[in-house]
Write a structure and sequence with these properties.
Order of helices and strands: EEHHHEEEH
Number of helices: 4
Number of domains: 2
Strand order of the largest sheet: 3-4-5
Structural class: alpha+beta
Length: 136
């Protein structure tokens, strides 16, 4: 369904990240949609919309901060999700307790902060309590 602006020119009601659209959204529409995504805490979607803005002069300081945060967060996410963490400079420690194996991967980054990745089975009854502790 096509929307029109005040002059009757067709515009895109929502921008699709895959770029498949018949009518390209304006930079103002992209910024507006990105701000709506931020309001719903969808920061990566907002960053993709802001990256598509042609006139970077329209971006405010908060938009630039969001783009910087998205780049650094994506790098951390990619690093944490490496299929073989040892390849990314992670150190590994493992323990076995009966039939449960635990692997702990850690590394210290340039800013002298430690990143940690823990792989261990969790009983189903403990899943919600541990998630609530992590989210505090």
């Amino acid at each position: 369904m096509e929307a029109t602006n005040e002059t009757g020119t067709p515009t895109l009601a929502t921008y699709r990240a895959d770029g498949s659209s018949e009518v390209a959204p304006t930079d103002e529409e992209l910024i507006q949609q990105a701000e709506a995504e931020v309001d719903t805490e969808r920061y990566f979607r907002a960053a993709k919309l802001l990256q598509a803005v042609q006139n970077q002069g329209l971006l405010q300081p908060q938009h630039h901060r969001l783009l910087e945060l998205a780049v650094s967060t994506q790098a951390i996410k990619d690093d944490l999700l490496l299929p073989h963490p040892e390849d990314g400079g992670w150190k590994k420690q493992s323990e076995t307790h009966g039939h449960r194996d635990t692997s702990i991967y850690y590394k210290v980054n340039k800013n002298a902060s430690m990143l940690c990745r823990i792989e261990t089975p969790i009983e189903g009854s403990l899943l919600l309590p541990i998630i609530s502790v992590f989210s505090e």
